[in-house]
Amino acid sequence: MVTAKINAYEPVEIVEDYIYESPLTLPAGNWQLTIEKGDAWVFCDKDNFVLHTTDSTYITSEEHAITLRCLYVKGSVKFTAIRFA
Description:
This protein is an all-beta fold and 85 residues long. It contains no helices and 8 strands. A hairpin with a 2-residue loop joins strand 4 (40-44) and strand 5.
């Protein structure tokens, strides 16, 4: 018999917001980030990457806050971020 342990994380906080000219900062932690509209430039720990509309990723940033910016100067980004315990 094989027994598996599955770590299920409970959502702690849900953030649904828009980003325009100013960047938005999420506190360090475990986040699931989904871009609903626009193109976002994401900075976390020692990495940065771009997410486009409908892209979703899971980010674990233990030491530093996660910063989200619009990729384009005149653009906007609609996103949903879920923080897990």
